[in-house]
Write a structure and sequence with these properties.
By secondary structure, the protein is mainly α. It has one domain. Helices cover 74% and strands 5% of the residues. It is built from five helices and two strands, in the order H-H-H-H-E-E-H. A two-stranded antiparallel ribbon has the order 1-2. A hairpin with a 5-residue loop joins strand 1 and strand 2.
Length: 172
């Protein structure tokens, strides 16, 4: 399946790769894993007395399913941390928009690397000699995801501060 990602030297191929891998796949994946599966876990957690623990079980469960969904052992290396991060952001933001945009950005960086910098330095090498996890993907992805988590926490803190200030009796 990796061979399908390599450029075929025409514009239609490049557009098709971006459309399917950087837009359609992330949207469908996030709707299923973070929207449906994690959404069901969030509903279950809301009914539980141990809300936080159940929520983390739901995040971990959907992460494991997400990581193994590609049936490619090398995708697990990125699938597990991304699944945990996307799941956390889904719960924290109460929306799949942020994880979907990050997933699309990560996929777009991956496609850009394959199409425009095929000889990039790699972070990991597979036992069969095929290089994986290019640095060009790893570094921007970590920076984008880290910045998103920091910003999410800032917004969540600001929202909780505003809610506390607006609560009845807060001015007393």
């Amino acid at each position: 399946s990796e061979e399908l990602l390599y450029p075929q030297s025409n514009a239609l191929d490049t557009i098709g790769a971006y459309w399917t891998i950087a837009i359609v796949a992330p949207v469908c994946t996030e709707l299923f894993f973070r929207g449906l599966l994690l959404g069901l876990g969030m509903e279950t957690a809301n009914l539980s007395r141990q809300r936080s623990a159940v929520m983390w079980y739901a995040i971990i469960f959907q992460t494991i399913l997400y990581a193994f969904s590609n049936l490619n052992p090398w995708e697990i290396v990125t699938g597990i941390p991304l699944g945990l991060i996307f799941g956390y952001l889904r719960v924290r933001m109460a929306s799949i928009l942020v994880p979907t945009v990050l997933h699309a950005a990560f996929s777009a960086i991956k496609i850009s690397n394959i199409y425009f910098w095929p000889d990039a330095p790699f972070l990991l090498n597979r036992p069969d000699g095929i290089e994986s996890l290019p640095l060009l993907i790893s570094i921007p992805a970590v920076l984008i995801i880290s910045a998103t988590i920091v910003r999410t926490e800032q917004l969540a803190h600001r929202t909780s501060s505003n809610s506390a200030a607006a609560a009845p009796g807060a001015a007393d």
